[in-house]
Specification:
Layout: H1 6-21, H2 27-47, H3 52-56, H4 60-81
Amino acid sequence: MHGNDSLRAVRVVRQWIDNIIGGEDGPQAIWAAYEDFNAAMFDEMLEKGFDAIDIEDVQTAKLIKLMETFVDNRKSTKAGGR
């Protein structure tokens, strides 16, 4: 469906979500935010004493919690900038 093209996959999922609940950000903005999250998570976990292997093996529940915190912080930053 997406031919191993990450941005194309994001487009497909974004269209699906948009059809169900709507959405503000386009595929490239979503992908950029995902890359920002990965970089921030990696740095944060390194600072807390995890190594690259620990980070790659982070459990799904922990990953979701980190994503929720990242999204909440991003929303707060956007709201403060308006």
